[in-house]
Design brief:
The chain has about 550 residues and is an alpha/beta fold. Helices cover about 50% and strands about 15% of the residues. Among the domains are: about 100 residues, Arginyl tRNA synthetase N-terminal domain (Gyrase A, domain 2, 2-Layer Sandwich); about 140 residues, Isoleucyl-tRNA Synthetase, Domain 1 (Orthogonal Bundle). It has a 5-stranded parallel beta sheet with strand order 7-6-5-11-12, with helices on both faces. The chain has a 4-stranded antiparallel beta sheet with strand order 1-2-4-3, covered by helices on one side. A 3-stranded antiparallel beta sheet has the order 8-9-10.
Length: about 550
């Protein structure tokens, strides 16, 4: 609809120029928006205000000329469905559409079904979304859960908006944390065998380490019998990392998150890519030696200081493998790379951006989503997230208690750049206070209505691809529902462009609210058969849009509640 109004305005500007009403045929950038207040029409444009300097006329006079030109052009893109056009304020042009302008939306939803709301703004550009990527040193916690929900939803939305998306998990299976994991398991194994050992504070403390040590002993006891500590730590490290990673995969699967690719950090070393990346930057004079260490000139690219890539003990830093990893991403042909990180990685953005630009890519090809912390509550009271013993609330704990759908919906209920209060008891409530129940209930309620209509012989099937008697949909609440549905694609595009999945969440809550308001005032099935069929068409369309939106967020659309 906005596109048609833009076309109408451009045609009107050309007509007004030809008639001498406007001195210039040039057109600046302008907006066509949905007004915040209903009395301001269905759509409004700032065309006249942004044209004032160019036309050297008062905005109100420009607006009046445009409206006159539209009135003189009978065959406009919207034809007779424009009921009224008015000039408001300093020069806004407000468009009021007839109900007939909106009725085709219902047919569009029914016909397009699962593709309604999809967009082509991505133009097939290849995008990689890398998220979670937790170290395989312990189970996923609540913060990882929010990052998983965000990353997965961003990938879904970008794909729906026409991008070619790959979701990737980067396995940090090399370096200090893996050696620490191996040491932690090895020492617990010694304790299990009755040996007295000091267990350092910098080792992993959770009970899961002891559990893994028992499994190592059962599985690899013979291999460990005569081995030295160095080899034993290595065996323990690989066993533990594999065990924990399998648990992470399982937890993410239960959470509805599946990756297209799992990429090993160790493979970057095994293939020589890390060393190659360092040598390439040396040749470009982007890496230099100081105090026995190798430094990357990140300050040259906007970082606050240069960063170490190889320590003076010869060991590489995480930054070194990250340089190689991101270079490898672009070599795979991705036009854009999106990393989803925890809030504590804020200081890491500049150095990775520097590495990307240093390899000849543009900064615009690299995005970072920083996911803020989750405050876990129970009936409004804080829940202890961790203990000194290294135990913490895991993603599995959350999913087991409230379910996948509620967990994902709550994680996406606010912008990821804001902290999130997650109330476990609220997420389990079967009431309008619970956002996921509030939205899912609409889908289930409509399914019930359609089943009743089928049982009563009004319709043959509860799903159909064309509306009936749509001209009868004239009630204010009906038109409001249709207008909400018409805005779905725009919200999808907004979400894709901003990388904010909570835009879809907010849209679904608004659509659900409009449905509840409608259903509380109007019967769908009544004695008037033709009106019943029209309303059944309407609510089925709402059901499909609700389902499409929930799918983007990775939340199911139940047939009954």
């Amino acid at each position: 609809m906005k596109t048609k109004i833009r076309t109408m305005l451009l045609d009107a500007a050309r007509t007004a120029f030809e008639k001498g009403l406007l001195p210039s045929n040039q057109v600046p950038e302008f907006e066509v928006e949905t007004p915040k207040h209903e009395g301001q029409g269905d759509f409004s444009t700032n065309f006249a205000m942004v044209s004032a300097k160019l036309q050297k006329m008062a905005p109100a006079k420009i607006a009046k000329s445009l409206v006159e030109a539209i009135s003189d052009t009978p065959h406009t893109p919207l034809g007779s469905v424009v009921e009224k056009i008015e000039v408001a304020g300093p020069g806004f042009i407000n468009f009021f559409l007839s109900p007939g302008a909106w009725h085709p939306v219902v047919d569009q939803v029914l016909k397009q079904d699962a593709t309604f709301g999809a967009s082509a703004i991505g133009s097939g550009k290849r995008v990689q979304v890398e998220f979670v990527s937790a170290n395989p040193t312990g189970p996923l916690h609540v913060g990882h859960g929010r990052g998983a929900a965000v990353g997965d939803a961003v990938g879904n939305i970008l794909s729906f908006a026409g991008f070619d998306v790959q979701k990737e998990y980067y396995i940090n299976d090399s370096g200090r944390q893996i050696r620490t994991l191996g040491t932690s398991v090895w020492l617990r194994l010694q304790q299990i065998q009755g040996k007295t050992v000091d267990f350092p504070q910098d080792c992993y403390q959770g009970d899961y380490i002891r559990d893994i040590a028992k499994e190592v002993l059962d599985a690899r006891g013979k291999d460990l019998a005569d081995t030295d500590e160095k080899q034993g730590v290595e065996i323990c490290a690989r066993f533990a990392a594999g065990k924990i990673l399998a648990g992470i995969r399982s937890d993410l699967d239960d959470f509805g998150v599946r990756f297209d690719n799992w990429f090993s950090e160790q493979s970057l070393y095994d293939s020589g890519r890390v060393q190659t990346a360092i040598e390439n930057f040396k040749e470009k004079d982007l890496i230099y030696e100081k105090d026995g260490a190798l430094w990357f000139r990140t300050e040259k690219f906007g970082d606050e200081k240069d960063r170490v890539v190889v320590r003076n003990n010869g060991l590489t830093t995480y930054f070194a493998s990250d340089i190689a990893y991101h270079d490898e991403k672009y070599e795979r042909g991705f036009d854009r790379v999106i990393d989803v990180w925890g809030a504590d990685h804020h200081g890491y953005i500049k150095r990775i951006d520097a590495a990307v630009v240093a390899t000849g890519r543009k900064s615009e090809q690299f995005d970072v989503i920083l996911v803020q912390l989750v405050n876990l509550l129970r009936d409004g009271n804080p829940v202890q997230m961790s203990t000194r013993a290294g135990e913490f609330v895991t993603l599995k704990d959350i999913v087991d208690e409230v379910g996948k759908d509620a967990a994902r919906f709550m994680f996406l209920s606010r912008s990821y750049d804001s902290g999130l209060d997650f109330d476990l008891e609220l997420a389990k409530k079967k009431s309008a206070d619970n956002p996921v129940y509030y939205v899912q209930y609409v889908h289930a309620r409509i399914t019930g209505i359609l089943n009743k209509a089928k049982d009563e012989g009004l319709i043959d099937q509860i799903d159909f691809n064309a509306g009936s008697n749509l001209e009868k949909l004239l009630a204010e609440e009906e038109l409001k529902l249709i207008k909400h549905m018409a805005a779905f694609r725009e919200q999808v595009e907004k979400s894709a462009e901003t990388l904010h999945p909570h835009v879809v969440f907010t849209y679904l809550m608004s659509l659900a609210s409009a449905f509840h308001a409608y259903y509380n005032r109007h019967k769908v099935i009544m004695e008037d058969r033709s009106l019943s069929l029209a309303r059944l068409s309407l609510v089925l369309a709402v059901k499909k849009v609700i389902r499409n939106g929930l799918t983007l967020l990775g939340v199911s659309a139940p047939e009954r509640m």
